[in-house]
Amino acid sequence: MNIFLPPASGDGRKDRPYNLRKNPVLSKMTGFFVLCLLLLTGLSVFSGCNQADDPTMGAPDRLYDEAWRILDNEYVDAGFNGQDWSHWRHHYAGQLKDYDDAYVAIQTMAASLNDEYTRFLSPRAMDEQTMSIDSRLYGVGIQISMRDNKLVVVTTIDDTPAERAGLMSKDLITHIDGHETAGMSVEDAADRIRGERGTYVTLTIRRDGQKLVKRIMRDEIKLKSVFSRKMNDPRIGYIRLSSFISETMMDEMYQALAKNKSKQGLILDLRGNYGGLFTNALDIADLFLDKGVMVYVVNRDHNRRVYEAHSGVDYSGPMVVLIDGGSASASEILSGALKDNHRATLIGSQSFGKGLVQKINTLSNGAGLNITISKYLTPDGTDINKKGIAPDIVVPFSEADFLARRDPQLARAVQELESRLVAKK
Hints:
With 425 residues, the chain is an alpha/beta fold. Helix content is 27%, strand content 24%. The chain has eleven helices and 20 strands.
């Protein structure tokens, strides 16, 4: 989802924490810039306009050239998917009559990179993406993305119509109100799914070869970040992170840890967490690590930047992290940091596999261009993009479990911690 990466100069996190609460300047910058809620673009940053230099161009040509130059300067693959990138610059010269023509041309150019996360946004789509974290959202409460040209549910948001209707991560949405999603963009699908509170949308989904039809009433979607609950075993604490989007997440996390600080073991639940602020992922990892690499970020020149833990440990007891196919992006940074540093045992199923960093560029007419500018590696140097992170202990969670209100992954996490607590006696 959306982050504001630290400046490129200096040693970054090795010298200071990127905790928004502790850095008022960065906090204000992020408060203004990080207003974007992406469907699933993972890690991203904001950039101002980058206008073309040639004043003789018409407005549509200038916009297209602006987009070409941004991609030329910043796209992560300097080979541009094995093509001669320069041929795109004047490919549509004299053919773009209006902005709609320019939009199609930019979309076509971006699509040639074969990167599902590098995409053009019209001014309307950019306005919808650029929204305050505290603004009201209306819909059903799902995060969607394209996988192999199919519209897929990445995750459902807690306590939303989608969750109550039983939608699950990896569900394929084949129809929206009877309209086939084949060939439909993520933006078009989102437009059809969103709507006024109290209205209905019918989603036809395919799950494990079965066709299911869900008629769901839209409602206000309240974005929460951190949840705590009491476990039957009073020695064990539980904290669920539903996303990393909120700027207030660290305050919520400190409060949750304060409630669980006396617990002898802790479960950190990242299932269905589609990601969010890069800074939140690092700051939370820093709560549990006193040293070691948390993540590497690699740019187009193959330069590797390291982010290390350093601030001390807020909780030092045994930990289990729960992950699944909806755990993406910032969730994978956190779970990868805890796994590779042997700080926690991961239980559940393979994570989503989002190991790329996007940058959000605002074009001169208010349109946008999300560009993959780098990738990240887990502390042991693993590239998890399109692969995901494998749990230490694989525990399936079936639809039958969901319908029966069973949670075998959580039960296994409790069992793992209880066995450790007994062994410590």
